[in-house]
């Protein structure tokens, strides 16, 4: 069989960013508000600083306002909740992103529930989690949906068209990826199976999948022999491994070279799902602004 087609998430994310930029310009031209994204980072984790900075920079590139709040590691939960309350009340802020993980002395659930659900551009607020969990097939996504899962569903719909009736197997049951991906694919009329570390004969379950989404955080965990010939494989994993030259490189949760020989479609790492997350964050911020603009 010919090698799998690559699902080019980098290219798709570039197109999505352009559409969001055009949407921002259009909203402002029609007298609407300038979308505003607030990011909140507690502590000085270098990787988190890079992520937060790139989100703010992209927001500005797309014509939005960016409000960056960098708080020291020893910020108390009450102080963080006060910042969230201030952002909730600020009409120039349409999206609020509190970068995770938070320091251990802060209760993450308490902070996420304090964010106005209409401004919850991560889609992590229990109200938005519940909306996604109870959505009817094909009903509009008129509330914020977690960015990485939204990106996964966009890539699949772009590659395959209708997903109706396809068997989707998800490896990983996290609240951040596995569960919301399952809800989005159920909404798209897939038959969805969520698997995890206790699943019996995982390779056999995976071999039933027309769509295989892997988000387990284990380097090259899914092997070529687990994949149904022609299936669409979406690899959400980002693992950094050392190279023999003493450097490091990124690999996914799927043994890519093996998958390429069996699958019909496969996402690369890097350049697959990764670039979709921040593009979907921009999309969510524009949509949140459109909803308040009426
Ligand atoms: N940390 C790593 N990924 C994310 C994300 O998508 N949102 C937030 N808020 N924090 C993160």
Structure, explained:
With 294 residues, the protein is of the alpha/beta class. It folds into two domains: 31-117, Leucine Dehydrogenase, chain A, domain 1 (Rossmann fold); 146-276, 3-Layer(aba) Sandwich (Rossmann fold). Helices cover 41% and strands 16% of the residues. It contains ten helices and eleven strands. The protein has helices at residues 9-29, 46-61, 77-89, 108-114, 126-133, 147-160, 178-187, 202-206, 256-262, 274-293; strands at residues 5-6, 36-42, 65-71, 95-98, 167-171, 191-195, 211-214, 232-235, 239-242, 248-251, 265-266. α6 packs across α7. It is globular, with a radius of gyration of 19 Å. The N and C termini lie far apart (51 Å). The relative contact order is 0.17. The protein binds guanine. Residues 97-100, 122, 147, 277 line the site of guanine.
Features:
11 strands; 16% strand; three-stranded parallel beta sheet; single chain; binds guanine; Rossmann fold; 294 residues; 10 helices; alpha/beta
Average pLDDT figure: 98
Fraction of helical residues: 40-55%
Radius of gyration: 19 Å
- Here the CATH topology of the largest domain equals Rossmann fold
Per the principal axes of the C-alpha atoms, what is the gross shape? globular
The level-1 CATH class of the largest domain:
Alpha Beta
CATH architecture of the largest domain: 3-Layer(aba) Sandwich
Domain tally: 2
Function: Catalyzes the oxidation of 5,10-methylenetetrahydrofolate to 5,10-methenyltetrahydrofolate and then the hydrolysis of 5,10-methenyltetrahydrofolate to 10-formyltetrahydrofolate.
Keywords: Amino-acid biosynthesis, Histidine biosynthesis, Hydrolase, Methionine biosynthesis, Multifunctional enzyme, NADP, One-carbon metabolism, Oxidoreductase, Purine biosynthesis
Binding site for NADP(+): 172-174, 238
Protein name: Bifunctional protein FolD
